[in-house]
Amino acid sequence: MAAAFPAQTKGKMNMQLLSRISSLCGGGCAVVEAAELSSGLPRETLKAQLLSLAAEGVISLSYAEDGVFCLALTEKGKEALSAPAGEQRKRGAGRAALLALAAFLGGFLGAMAAALLGGAA
Fold it and tell me: Which end of the chain, N or C, is more open, meaning fewer C-beta atoms within 10 Å of its C-beta?
């Protein structure tokens, strides 16, 4: 269900959820109910968001059953909350550029090796 939201809205929702988790957990682990975490989101959507945040490594989700969650904010989550949104986008763009460069160089070097080996045979 969480995929039905546009990426920008989902990002804002995740940051709001991270902020709420931070205030509820106070730097440690806390057991909270779904109603404490979000206002108006269906439980399944909230659970999907929490699982997504846990997969990204920004929260630690120890328990998730019947609308009750045991969670904590990780160091990566604290950094995400403290970093300005523009800075997060710049880091993502830098990683994408580096990945594109690595892919180009890998393809180029692979083609050169194939040409050299194919020409020698």
Answer: C
